[in-house]
Amino acid sequence: MMEVNFGNVGQIITIVTFSAGIVKMVVINPLQVSINSLGQSIVEMRDAVNRLNIDLKNIDKRLAVVESSTKSAHKRITEVNGH
What we know:
By secondary structure, this protein is an all-alpha fold. The protein has one helix at 9-81.
């Protein structure tokens, strides 16, 4: 085991700093990029879901109008046929 003294503290600090830099470059930076990308994907998916919800509400409104029109048309047809 290496003895720590004032003579080799600089070397130890250099090795630790270099090792930390390598870990940051190899592990942390790619993870940060992936996290940012996932965050952007979540925002895009949330926006898509919101648009789909708006579309579904509009379809519900249109369906209610079509159902009402169909019921009214059926009633008129029944009246014309004398039933």
